[in-house]
């Protein structure tokens, strides 16, 4: 009887939390939306960070709205700006480079992987220039 109680307890403790977790694989749209929100916040944080604010001062603010059709042009321009940083201090700043690489990944995902899954509902480039 004690073994049965332990087994039941193990099922309750281990299996039920896994079964009750809302498991659903992310769609391409949710992945892109989440990455865009993270990158927008990350760029804002880097602008405020004393170690990277010098480098980020040369870059425009990054606001990504995956529903705006201008976002692809905005991302490619921003990646070019990050890769084109000439100041030695900025060219080797790990966080700024990582932002550029992650932004390039998002661009690739949006243009190649999720091309048919995304629908742009807005065409206003000025909205991305906040």
Automatic annotation (TrEMBL):
The keyword Cell cycle does not apply. InterPro entries: CYTL1. GO terms for biological process: positive regulation of transcription by RNA polymerase II. Residues 1-20 form the signal peptide. The keyword Signal applies. Keywords: Signal. This is Cytokine-like protein 1. It comes from Parambassis ranga. The lineage of its organism: Eukaryota, Metazoa, Chordata, Craniata, Vertebrata. The gene is cytl1.
């Amino acid at each position: 009887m004690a073994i049965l109680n332990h087994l039941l307890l193990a099922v309750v403790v281990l299996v039920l939390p896994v079964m009750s977790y809302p498991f659903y694989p992310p769609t391409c749209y949710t992945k892109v939306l989440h990455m865009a929100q993270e990158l927008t916040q990350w760029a804002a944080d880097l602008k405020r960070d004393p170690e990277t604010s010098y480098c980020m001062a040369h870059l425009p603010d990054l606001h990504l709205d995956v529903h705006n059709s201008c976002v692809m042009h905005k991302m490619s321009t921003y990646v070019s700006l990050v890769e084109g940083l000439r100041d030695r201090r900025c060219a080797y700043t790990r966080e700024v480079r990582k932002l550029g690489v992650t932004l390039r990944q998002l661009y690739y995902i949006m243009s190649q992987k999720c091309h048919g899954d995304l629908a742009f509902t807005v065409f206003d480039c000025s909205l991305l220039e906040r």
